[in-house]
Design brief:
Number of domains: 1
Distance between the termini: 26 Å
Shape: globular
Helix content: over 70%
Strand content: under 5%
Number of helices: 12
Number of strands: 0
Low-confidence stretches: none
Radius of gyration: 19 Å
Order of helices and strands: HHHHHHHHHHHH
């Protein structure tokens, strides 16, 4: 029963994407702009001052940021489900609240993964160097980042009452993280206050994990990676458990009200 409910909820979100191809197209515009324009301009302006390719640096950062943000933002449909009474119909069914939440996170993670695969394809087009082990490793990391982003979105959106409020607040939560997590620029030598804020940003660990995998074994590894992948995985695992537990508790509490 529980597994069937999780699969059904996840499939529902994936089916919604197939019926809305415009959403997929528009979600790829900004990553392409960020990688092509920012990565290219940074490389041409700063390429002679650093010992690694800025285009590759930005590509991996934008890949992780897009997966994390897309999965987190997708959880906003919980608010839509509340407004059209779908979630109440699910709550009266004899399944665990955690199964409902996990199904939702998995569904939005699958949606984000489709975007991630498209970004990897764009990377091949613009000449980002890949090999089979790196691609397979990035796919595994992408799954981790998507699920992590979904759990963060659950925590943030569990106390929001309407989609309008969520659309207004969400950018203020995500935009600072994009800069504090080092998506576009290195953050190894931040001032103390910014360094503290950066360490409080969940997206930082998703981005650094992806870079740790991509640059593993390369000469520039120490210049672009902040922490070992295993350390990032431990932090992500702990935060994921906390986000799911607290986010589910808050969400169910508000639904009962």
């Amino acid at each position: 029963m529980e597994l069937s409910a999780i699969v059904a909820l996840a499939y529902r979100d994936l089916l919604k994407l197939t019926r809305d191809p415009i959403r997929l197209g528009t979600s790829l515009i900004f990553p392409v702009i960020f990688i092509g324009i920012l990565g290219g301009s940074f490389q041409s302006g700063l390429g002679s001052m650093i010992d690694y390719d800025f285009m590759h640096f930005v590509f991996v950062g934008v890949l992780a940021q897009t997966l994390f943000q897309s999965s987190a933002l997708g959880i906003i449909s919980l608010i839509e489900d509340r407004q059209n009474d779908f979630i109440q119909e699910v709550f009266v069914s004899p399944i665990s609240r955690y199964s409902i939440v996990i199904g939702k996170i998995i569904g939005e993670s699958l949606v984000a993964l489709i975007q991630g695969i498209a970004i990897l394809g764009f990377g091949v087009i613009i000449g980002i160097p890949f090999n089979v082990p790196i691609v397979l490793s990035l796919i595994v990391v992408s799954v981790v980042v998507c699920v992590f982003g979904g759990s963060f979105g659950l925590l943030v959106l569990s106390n929001l009452k309407s989609q309008r409020i969520a659309n207004q607040i969400f950018p203020f939560i995500m935009l600072p993280q994009i800069f504090l997590s080092g998506v576009f620029t290195p953050i190894g030598n931040l001032p103390l206050v910014l360094d503290i804020l950066s360490r409080m940003s969940p997206m930082r660990y998703a981005v650094d994990l992806a870079r740790g995998i991509y640059y593993s074994g390369k000469a520039e590894y120490s210049s672009v990676v902040l922490s070992e992948p295993m350390i990032n995985m431990i932090i992500i695992s702990g935060l994921f458990c906390m986000f799911v537990f607290v986010g589910t508790w808050l969400f169910v509490k508000n639904e009962r009200k």
